[in-house]
Design goal:
CATH topology of the largest domain: Aspartate Aminotransferase, domain 2
Shape: globular
Low-confidence stretches: none
CATH architecture of the largest domain: 3-Layer(aba) Sandwich
Bound molecules: pyridoxal-5'-phosphate
Largest sheet: 7 strands, mixed
CATH class of the largest domain: Alpha Beta
Number of domains: 2
Order of helices and strands: HHHEHEHEHEHEHEEHHHEHEHEEHEH
Length: 393
């Protein structure tokens, strides 16, 4: 039955809730509230809602619940809570869990807004955070302590595509009694499900591959029923971070093609990375399934494909990177990722501009580094466009 379905089948069918009309496509229930049959049934629903009973869209909604059930089935967790953005998911998973006096260990190579939550927000409420080099297991071992409530990491870091051994970090964290929270955006649930390697909570920015067409902001927290409904949901539904039903509908449609899109994009990414590697104008080409990647063995063992992202470093620094970008015709200069349209990003001057120079250097964000999100265009066209960029350097 549904539990035995392969991912591609789950992406199309799991979670569907049909109304009395038997509609084929998922319906959008654009409603904030729900009318009760009687005062008694309103009272009963506030005491305990059944599976198909909703109270208010901030708490839950049929379309949103379809998305939650579908992504939970694909990630392989008991439940999921859909959020207004990826950052609402990261903030919700962390903030709902900790209190003053708790300790968190986090890898240092993080999406800028994740760093803001850990460094600026949680610190103000008395939560202590220790940052480690996520690839160095000794640093994780040295950092955990009895008050460590959670460890946080991005399984593949942005923008240098460093891989973290989730299984090894989870062993260290669990031995210390800490929960493992993984931001799995770059890996996608198609190529690597973090729960398989011991993650307790997996967060996604659905804005990226799940929508996949650059339309809507969204996020999701996947985990056990206990974590999702007793820890994350109370915090999120009362503080306003829930996903809108319209967004859930966009994401449900995105999921139906998620596997096809991710695989096509990863095939092109490998083709492009292989073709560019060794070019004399580049100091490095970073792609998890290139043998030159520092964690190639880990990437091969834990990811069924190398992902949809690659990074290249131009020897000529910022000037070369800008000339390269300005010569592109197909690739768009933007900062989203996982989109059907290929995107080139210069992290040092955009997504990671805020970081001090020494931090950038530490994270490998050099002036010539470009992050490339490979889209659904023809791989040959994409490569030819990049060659045009290189010629302009
Ligand atoms: C984009 C992104 C986020 C934030 O997601 P939003 O939907 O933009 O809020 C968090 N983590 C990673 C790794 C991301 O790429």
């Amino acid at each position: 039955m549904a539990d035995d379905w392969k991912t591609k089948t789950k992406l199309v069918h799991t979670g569907s809730r049909r109304s009395q009309y038997g509609e084929m496509a998922e319906a959008i229930f654009l409603t904030q509230g729900f009318a009760y049959e009687s005062a008694e049934s309103a009272e009963a629903r506030f005491i305990k809602s059944g599976d198909d009973e909703f109270i208010y869209a901030r708490y839950g909604n049929p379309t949103t619940r379809m998305f939650e059930d579908r992504i939970a089935a694909v990630e392989g967790t008991e439940d999921a809570f859909a959020t207004a953005s990826g950052m609402a998911a990261v903030n919700g998973a962390l903030t709902a869990l900790v209190k003053a006096g708790d300790h968190i260990v986090s890898s240092r190579a993080l999406f800028g807004s994740c760093l803001y939550i850990l460094e600026d927000v949680l610190g103000r409420f008395g939560v202590e955070v220790t940052f480690v080099d996520g690839t160095d297991l000794d640093q994780w071992r040295a950092a955990v302590r009895p008050t460590t409530k959670a460890v946080f990491l991005e399984s593949i870091s942005n923008p240098t595509l460093e891989m973290i051994d989730v299984r090894a970090v989870a062993e260290i964290a669990h031995a210390a009694g800490a929960l493992v929270i993984v931001d799995n955006v770059f890996a996608t649930p198609i190529f690597s499900r973090a729960v398989e390697f011991g993650a307790d909570v997996v967060v996604y920015s659905a804005t990226k591959h799940i929508d996949g067409q650059g339309r809507a902001l969204g996020g999701v927290i996947c985990g056990t029923k206990d974590f999702v409904r007793k820890v994350a949901e109370p915090y999120l539904k009362h503080t306003g971070g829930s996903m809108s039903p319209f967004t859930a509908w966009v994401m449900l449609n995105g999921m139906q093609t998620l596997d096809l899109r991710c695989r096509a994009m990863a095939d092109s990414a490998l083709h492009i990375a292989s073709a560019l590697e060794g070019d004399p104008r580049l100091s490095r080409v970073i792609y998890p399934h290139l043998p030159s990647h520092p964690q190639y063995d880990l990437a091969k063992a834990t990811m069924s494909a190398g992902g949809t992202m690659l990074s290249i470093d131009l020897k000529g620094g910022k000037e070369a990177a800008f000339r390269f970008m300005n010569a592109l015709e197909i690739w768009k200069i933007s900062n989203n990722l996982g989109d059907a349209k290929s995107i080139a990003t210069h992290p040092a001057t955009t997504t990671h501009q805020r970081l001090p120079a020494d931090q950038k250097a530490k994270l490998g964000i050099t002036p010539g580094l470009l992050r490339l999100s490979v889209g659904l265009e023809d791989a040959g066209d994409l490569l030819a466009d990049l060659q045009r960029g290189l010629a302009a350097v």
